[in-house]
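Sanity check

After download, print the first record. It should look like this:
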Amino acid sequence: MSDSASVVQVLQRLARLEASLAERDAMIAERDARIEALTRRVAELEALLRKDSRTSSKPPSSDGPVQAPPRSRRQSSGRAAGKRPGEPGFTLRQVEAPDRVLVHAPGACDGCGRSLRSAPVTSVEARQVFDLPQVRLQVTEHRLEHRRCRCGTLTMAAAPGGVGAPTPVRTTGTSGRRLSGRLPAPALRTGL
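Expected structure tokens:
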């Protein structure tokens, strides 16, 4: 009997193990289905992230605050940026005699707050600012004289080239630089 009892126990254990394996197989199949669904969802969301107003019919306002940097259409020349080796550099140097000198004195001590009006100057640091002069119109008046001959004919002096109207604007100045053919309205009104 002990042999038949042990066979029964083995068969019962085998049945329990088969039931347990069937339960695990069902759980694994359920997880596989869930993993497949989540993989499809991730792919859909990644596709949405790649879409913006340039790659779809979405309006630019839907791009959000973070936008991809614009792609440059320039092609690399293969050369390094900047000055070529051996070429001289260009920099502004301070001039010995500037047009204007402004002296800036500290008013009070940074440490204790006392006035520095009568304190001696220990050193001076020079900083120069280079400004381009303001562009101003140069006005040349051409006076064409009228003279009457003894015969009674009134003759006016011929205007030089480029002076065809009472207030012409030349497109090329005397320096040879190209100027605008039209003056801005404020310059015409103020008579600059």
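If your output differs, re-run the checksum step. Summary of this record's structure: The first helix runs from residue 2 to 50.
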